[in-house]
Amino acid sequence: MIKVLVVEDSPVVREFLVHVLSSDPEIKVVGTATDGEDALEALKETAPDVVTMDIHMPKMDGFEATRRIMETSPTPIVIVTGSSEPGEVGTSFRAMEAGALAVVPRPQGIGHPEFEASAKELQTTVKLMSEVKVVRRWNRTRRVQLAPAGPKVEIKRESRPAQVVGIGASTGGPIALQTILSGLKKDFPVPVLVVQHMAAGFTEGFIEWLNHTSGPEVRLAVHGDLILPGHVYVAPDGLHMGVKTTGRIALSQDPPENGLRPSVSFLFRSLAQSYGPRAVGILLTGMGRDGAEELKLMRERGAVTLAQDEESSVVYGMPGAAIKLDAAQYVLAPEKIVAALHALTNNG
Amino acid sequence: MTEREKEFLNKLIATFKVEAEEHLKLITAGLLELEKRPADDRQLVEDIFREAHSLKGAARAVSMAEIETLCQSLENVFAAWKQRALSPSAELFDLLYRSLDTLRRLLATPEGEPSGESLNLSGLLRDLDSASKGTASRNPLPVEDPKAEPERRPAVIERAPAEMHSSPADTVRISTGKLDAVLLKAEELLSAKLAAGQHAADLSEVNAALTAWKAEWAKIQPLAGALRRSLEKNGERRALANGQLAKIIDFLDWNQRAFTDLESKLSSLLRAAEQDHRAVGAMVDDLLSDTKKLLMLPFSSILDPLPGLVRGLARDQGKEIDLEIEGAELEVDRRILEEMKDPLIHLVRNSADHGVEKPLEREQKGKPRRGTIKIAIAQKDSNRAEIVVSDDGRGIDLAKVRASALKLGLIAPAEAQSLGEAEVLALVFRSGVSTSPLITDISGRGLGLAIVREKAEKLSGAVAIESRPGFGTSFRVAVPLTMATFRGVPVRVNGNIFVLPSAQVERAARVEKRNIKTVENKETAEIDGEAVSLVHLADVLELPRKSPNEDSNGSAQVVVTGLGGKRIAFIVDEILGEQEVLVKSLGRQLSRVRNIAGATVLATRKLVPVLNVSDLVASAAATSAVASAPAEAASDKARKTRVLVVEDSITARSLLKSILEAAGYDVQTAVDGIDAFTQLRSAEFDVVVSDVEMPRMNGFDLTAKIRADKKLAELPVILVTALESREDKEKGIDVGANAYIVKSSFDQSNLLEVIKRLA
Predict the structure, then answer these.
(1) pTM of the entire predicted model
(2) Measured between CA atoms, how close is A106 to chain B, in angstroms?
(3) Residues B143, B145, B147, CA angle at the centre, nearest 5°?
């Protein structure tokens, strides 16, 4: 049984979440809390496997509560947000900086056509997160190590520098992505294309959040846009993203791959076809195996391929699958991926 | 949706309603606060925004799409406000208050029923959406001029801000149902206390019987001693007889020892019983008073709707009114608050409607444009609060009260002139008396103040009124802070015991038979220097009277009640005392029994009825031979009241017709004003009920025509309409309608009541 603590100030929403979670036979709600302070108390008493956390609460909000929990008794935290307004979603993602593992939308109400599906998403996320090992965080500022300590990564200098970088990520991806993107220079010389699996409606907020950090400008991919250096393009909700040989973005409504749209597979396949050896493919943390085969394809077409290492991955599923297929040339932590990217694109 | 989900959803909806109330309250409070401040306060807007947002989230969890959508639009407005993309205006506040009202109505709509708000809603949503966008574009620089607007806005000034928010850590939220159950059980313990008292009394009676025995024994004891001594002297000569006698004397000795033993046991038992009685009594009393304190809430909990109400009334009537509230933190029993809710609303309405004048009129009188209604609550003594609702309006027009009371036959024409000012003022509390020329939905039917008095008296409180023409009116309502334990006076009538509520018993008295006078076939006696009519309680209860010659020593015991200012002395066979009584309702099978309010168990375990005094007073009036009503009135009532219904919609017409016919009226119908007027000229009617919007001739024109006609000028006209604006109401007055009922709040009892009053 997975023990869950529900933190939410609205009594209605609280009961609703308890109901949704308890409907899953593997989940047991062991406690509820009405605000952050209350949550810290309840955490001591109930020792849950996962905490679901609302952001806006009186006394101590979800952001602060997440930070405190990760500093004192690290527990997987899932942010459950009732808003898809970009600013609000951005706030929720900031809780991830404090150590929350995932942000999911609050399920639709009972009787809503999407109730079942959205309830399932919450249940699945909670179950998945219960398995994640979280580590204690001593403070909120996480230094991005531009010059990584330890053994230096030897990146083979390609004769021709890369012209495009594709990144695929799922569970645990936002923080890894943020680490990588914030490490890049503002005028990073090649465009970056990103597919991040995410609940519908969150993409804009996600982009807003990413733009809070330094690094290249992050924007929502638009069909037909020319991809430019110094920019990061994020695939929109519900559409596959690829890129043509002309350097223009091609969004597609092709059927979902691996049950996902946008899928990392679609992006990587498109990169392999359009850019071949002039592309870099990076597969980050995430559940499942989306993009693993296609990373292999990229490698076969001469592209440089990277996968996130197990230690830094929240879920090792996707990078693990790629490594098994021998799809990744380098297996690195996000901080080192930054260095690798600079090395790969440095034409000076 | 599965059964389980449905069940859960229902539970969730109940929680939602409580939560939603809370959010709405905070939004309303926030808006009222914002309206008061000339400059906007971003933090406050942010708070309101949060509340709307939370409400939206909660509504979504229970799938209440209409509330969710409305909250979304509200949220957009607040968001724009927050970003200073719009500037608050009086119109915006109106729109927001309207939205809150709609939210409240949506909340009140039972599940699964079409709300009937949908049409309304889309308009409201449009308005809100354009408010969140439109205003911004029209007014790109929303610089608030602090002097421009605040003048017009009604404000709420709350003096002595109460420390109402105790730390949440010290409080728990318990449903009132649970608390009521606890209180009920605590009250049940009263019977244990009464029984303990009764046991002690019974034991002390037995003890007294024993004392009587002791006295008798003391007389016999010397004789027995003498007998024994003489027996011993006589020796064995009469052994046989002596043996028997000796046995009896021995038995007497044993008997004395046994009784002494018994007596000591009895007295320790009596002491124990008395101690129990005292201990149980004290504990029950403490428990009861503590439990009652659990149910105490501050007055503010019922005052919340008032600022909004005043604001709405002021807006509808084109008046400018400030509401001041003082002492809202005083805590009172929840049940008393519940009872006082409507009366308070009524008093405030009354002040806003009849008291405060329009700005122009006020200026002409040299008063400030803005009127003030003040609610002051204060504790008067250990268990009494006084609520004063006062206004600085025009005061009460005594002549109009007199005229209204005269018309209703409450006072005789001769009486009308002789009544003093205070007596005339007191008439406003009589049902039907109104100074308003026009009956509207809000007021004018003259029932409100009667209800205020009834409620206050039900709580064993009182209402007083002071009015200075031209300077204002104030109502003083005194209510207890806690519900006193019900006390009753048990009386015996023809061998049966009944309980009269002590609260309504003014006094008990003994009346000498020879002092009873018969005036106009009614028995009266002088009590405290005042002639009071005497009624045999047995007659009222339709029991046989005890034959008069059995009455002891030529006097009668009476219980004097003083309900509604009218004293009546009920003659009973015996008054048995006064005690605490636990009143039980008769249950649903007997929801209403004339003269009987409930039942109670006396300490003797005897089940007895508790009498309903106001019924008794009414029954007394019916039983005593009065009936000197004017003969013409009686013949008038013999004929059915004839009503002309004027309505162009066939559905509404037949509906009205059937409602009125069911209520015993003779109903004719007309399809428009012209048809109606033709009918009015050819036949006689007692009252006209007319729609306003009709083809050919509308209701206003019809009314005007009726008033212009010599023969019809006095005919009562009731306008029933969908138009709810002040202008329309005023137009109704101008053309001479007697009542103006808005369809949206139209229910049949309302109409029937108005007809009854006018026809």
Answers:
(1) 0.49
(2) 9
(3) 170
